[in-house]
Amino acid sequence: MLSVPVNADTLPRELLKCFQPTGMTVEPPEDPSKVGYQLECACDWEEEHGMEIDILDDKLVFLSEFTGESPWGDHTDDYGNYAQMI
Questions:
Q1: 3-state secondary structure at position 11
Q2: In angstroms, rounded to a whole number, what is the distance separating the alpha carbons of residues 19 and 26?
Q3: Contact in structure between 75 and 61 (CB atoms under 8 Å)
Q4: Mean pLDDT by 10-residue block, N- to C-terminus, for the chain (86 residues)?
Q5: Closest Cα to residue 24, out of 7, 4, 41?
Q6: Is the Cβ–Cβ distance between 49 and 42 less than 8 Å?
Q7: 3-state DSSP call for residue 38?
């Protein structure tokens, strides 16, 4: 992976150089009109746990270290869910 210095001024495009998808899980839909999937990534700043990106119906619902959450879950109170800050 290409590393860049990461701080509050780092542009989102530059962050893309710091992680790499390593797996994708598509769960059976709870609502057939929506698609939910999870990306597992290796990343420079969390080498031990990696990173998790959960997408539900084209919306980012969970972004954190990999915990194995479901894109269909209620993430409103998830500690460390950076998707809530976006």
A1: coil
A2: 20
A3: yes
A4: 67 79 90 92 83 91 90 84 75
A5: 41
A6: no
A7: strand
Tokens of 86: 């976006």
The rounded distance, in Å, linking the Cα atoms of 73 and 42 is: 23
What residues does each domain of the chain span?
20-85
Amino acid type, 27: E
| Cβ-count burial 49-77 (b if 16+ within 10 Å, e if not) | ebbbbbbbeeebbbbbebeebbbbeebee
Residue owning tokens 């939910």: 36
Beta pairing class for 36-43 and 59-65: unpaired
Q: Cβ(81)–Cβ(66) under 8 Å?
A: no
